[in-house]
Amino acid sequence: METVLTFLLIRFAVIAAGLVFLALVLFAVALVLRRAGRLDAARRRAEPLAREGLRRLSERAPHDRGPH
Questions:
Q1: Residues 39, 30 contacting (CB under 8 angstroms)
Q2: Residues of the chain whose pLDDT is less than 70?
Q3: Residue ranges of domains in the chain
């Protein structure tokens, strides 16, 4: 039982570390774009992609979330 808990803890730590690393990379990219004065252009390019991704996610999600 202890080895299972250790495995779950290690898995959680790896996932958390990956998310922190991803957040740091995204922050660094945004900072570089802002300093170069191209953050607004990057936002204009990324906005349609984000909208399409959210639209597809909402289509896949179940529409009825109420109690049955």
A1: yes
A2: 63-68
A3: 23-59
- Pairwise CA distance, residues 57 & 54, whole Å: 5
How far is Cα 48 from Cα 43, in angstroms, rounded to an integer?
9
pLDDT, position 43:
85
CA distance 62 to 66: 10
Other CB atoms within a 10 A radius of the CB of residue 31 amount to 11
pTM of the predicted model over 0.70: no
The answer to whether residues 7 and 1 touch, using CB atoms and an 8 Å cutoff, is: no
Beta-carbon contacts of residue 30 (< 8 Å; ≥ 6 apart): 39
Expressed in angstroms, the distance from the first to the final Cα of the chain is 37
Cα–Cα distances (Å) from 7 to 11, 50, 57, in that order, read 6, 35, 31
